[in-house]
Amino acid sequence: MGIDWSAGRYEATGEMLLPVSELVVAMSEPLAGRTVVDVGCGTGNAALLAAARGAVVTGVDPAPRLLEVARQRAADRGLEIDFVTGEAAGIPLPDHSADVVFSVFAVIFAPDPGAAIAELVRVTTQDGTIRLTSWPPEGPLVVINKVVGQFMAEAMGEQPAGANHPKPLGWHDRDELRAAFAPYGFEVEVERRSLTFTAPSPEAFLATSSEHPMAVGASQALSTLPNSAELEAELAARLLAATVELNEDPQAFAYTNDYVVVTARRG
């Protein structure tokens, strides 16, 4: 089953990830007068930043609620942005319509990476740029996700995610991405950066994280089990233990996670 990105309150996560959108947009300047498509725009971080720099922007996302949040944020700033419903594997825009295509921690969730890449390429102009971000397969975020994944597999009586399934595309991996984009004549470069997540305490960080759509989905799955309250408490305890161990700031909470910025252009 896919992720319901309208569930919970992704706004909190969007705030944490804003510095990444700021970097991606800065790397793409000048943007004035250029057409920009933000694929998986969520609450609109990259779309808003690009529009504020004079770009003609379209934001695409499958989650109706997040699109409404993005529209309201644009209206509050006096920015004109066209926000439309769509998937990465079916971008509702004409061929070669974007000078710059962004996807900040979004296309990496596409169920069919090949179809998503084909669509990113299709909507990009001949001399355009695709710029996306992804997480590497190590770091605090992976540790936390493994805690949840293993617990959910135990609770639901299932194999852990990935067991007996084909290896997904490594959206962080330069060689895999070059192979995926090569049939379209695109060259790929990958840069590694880092992002620090902060909160007043580990408990406060987990409270915010619990609003993420993926966390809400896990909670909803546990609620279908007869001992759901006990399971929720056990998962919370495991997450707190992992978060405390990862904490870099004894006076509050912080952890630093690497991420990659992928830039693809026609050769």
TrEMBL record:
GO molecular function: S-adenosylmethionine-dependent methyltransferase activity
Domain Methyltransferase type residue range list: 37-130
InterPro entries: Methyltransf_11, Methyltransf_Superfamily, SAM-dependent_MTases_sf
GO biological process: methylation
Keyword Methyltransferase annotated: yes
Entry keyword Transferase: yes
Highest taxon of source: Bacteria
Pfam families for this protein: Methyltransf_11
Keywords of the record: Methyltransferase, Transferase
Name this protein carries in UniProt: Methyltransferase type 11
Organism: Kribbella flavida (strain DSM 17836 / JCM 10339 / NBRC 14399)
Gene3D superfamilies assigned: Vaccinia Virus protein VP39
